[in-house]
Fold this sequence. Notes:
By secondary structure, this protein is mostly helical. The protein has one domain. It contains three helices and no strands. It has helices at residues 2-41, 46-65, 69-76. The two termini are 36 Å apart.
Amino acid sequence: MKKRIQGELYKGSSFVEVIVGVLVLMACIVGGIGIIFQMVVEHVSPLNGLLIIIAVTLLFIIRKYLYISKVDSKAVD
């Protein structure tokens, strides 16, 4: 009984991990595309351009350190 409950909890936590990973990936992609689109459409000042580059860099850093094996291994296959 105890092993069955542990197994179910493990499955549930794995599912939540995958869902959170997919949501983070989607947020990074949509945010990056939105920032780049805004940068191309509007002519921004050098300071704003620097802030945009920092924001895109932060999106990539967030995605790198929130690596979730199940989501990323499916993307590689």
